[in-house]
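Standup notes, protein team

Yesterday: finished cleaning the Capra hircus set.
Today: Growth factor receptor bound protein 10 structure.
Blockers: none.

Input for Growth factor receptor bound protein 10:
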Amino acid sequence: RMLAGGPSTSFPYPSLQDKVEQTPPQRPGELAGPGFPAPPDRLAGHQEDDLDLEALVNDMDASLESLCVASETAPLLHNGQHSRGPAPGARVLQPQAAPRQRVQRSQPVRILAVRRLQEEDPHLRTSSLPAIPNPFPELCGPGSPPALTPGSLPPGPAAAKQDVKVFSEDGTSKVVEILADMTARDLCQLLVYRSHCVDDNSWALVEHHPHLGLERCLEDHELVVQVESTMASESKFLFRKNYAKYEFFKNPMNFFPEQMVTWCQQSNGSHTQLLQNFLNSSSCPEIQGFLHVKELGRKSWKKLYVCLRRSGLYCSTKGASKEPRHLQLLADLEDSSIFSLIAGRKQYSAPTDYGFCIKVPVRNEAKELRLLCAEDEQSRTCWVTACRLLKYGMLLYQNYRIPQQRKAMLSSFSTPVRSVSENSLVAMDFSGQTGRVIENPAEAQSAALEEGHAWRVSRGPVWPERGCRARSPAYPPSLVPTVIHRTQHWFHGRISREESHRIIKQQGLVDGLFLLRDSQSNPKAFVLTLCHHQKIKNFQILPCEDDGQTFFSLDDGNTKFSDLIQLVDFYQLNKGVLPCRLKHHCIRVAL
């Protein structure tokens, strides 16, 4: 607090010292204003030469206000805010105030927010606040998008759930609760996880119509609930393998014979160009050939020249002519699905076993189906694959690339994922009277390699040119053909030849797809059913005895194996007498 008239009094504004000294003092009674009581009478006897502090403050305010007016800035109130008008119960200070103007003390003023202040008067700026830059200028412009996008809003109510019943190949079923937006790929991954299967991206969800004799594999992007809403009460979903779902991306030339494919523009015929023409919406690929077409509402079939374009499936009314006036629309692919005939000969009197159907989802009557038959399996595969490519286009390629990208992301992890039961195992040494735990990792690895080598020597194949024989196994030889292989997924027991062919067709006609079964002609023999170049072949596995021990062979005893597990392991690595190596095995999973 400053003491007026004291010898040690210091004034912070030397430039205004003369003006202050020349200012005539005010009487204390004149300081009273609204809301301020008059000072006591004891102030009236103050000496005239004392410095009047109230007059000093008044003159300082007037001087500062005059400076602000000169610099074209808005006047300031005592609280540091811009003056927007007279405060309630207070008089406005004029810039050219008289030297002896009464002092107006500040009254309580409601301070507006900065945003509201700028909205009401954009010319006003708060000088008492620091200039903080806006970190999001793009959100403040008039043409900017809203700050809250649909993805940034809080999640709404949970999506509706629905129960879906899925069947397996062996007749078992499982009811799964899924969301309304779950795709076929998501449901397959869920079933793989719950069934403890290997997720090799070859599982598929099949739409099966037994009363119509039709079935198809759902595309990975299709919504399960949406597809189920178009199915009849007799229809159901099947969970099975389909190795040929995206095989045409790997070997396109095997699916599209040259005599069936034509282009509106020049094509070099390479694999890449062939797929690009189908995936590119601006290109005009065309599949052409003869098909047996069933007339709607009749049992008769006619052989017609058919061409498939992006606009739909057409048949020629005059031979093989493709003139517009001779083409008649058979089916539109945009709102239809492509199915395979299960028993075309028996149910529809089809001329061949290679039938397919173009069906509108809402139509579940046989008389409304567009049924067609090809001459062989390769032609039917070509037609069905071309319909899928022209209908879905890049969606199919994206479905094919998603597992590849996921596999590439996981390839950086060199250490394989181990199960909990495997992590709980420890290396043991039972060579002595009591067992001991092998704590040295190097010793444990050496023991594992030695044990594996001894197992292969005792149970490995017998090579006639090497002159070596297999040692007797640790279990009775009579249990080898009846116990060991029956626990494997590739062994399907006592099924007929027709059933084995049906299973391979359902799971995809790709090279190397196989299964083993009991032989119907020889009770002691087995049969290897193998697919090669979209054709199914059967190879008989005959038992042979050598020095009182039973072996199995595919090549009349030249290469012998102690059991079927060794035989399958060998031909998965070596082609041998087979047309190709064993790559994929047919499997049936119980849900």
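Follow-up from PR in the comments: The radius of gyration is 45 Å.
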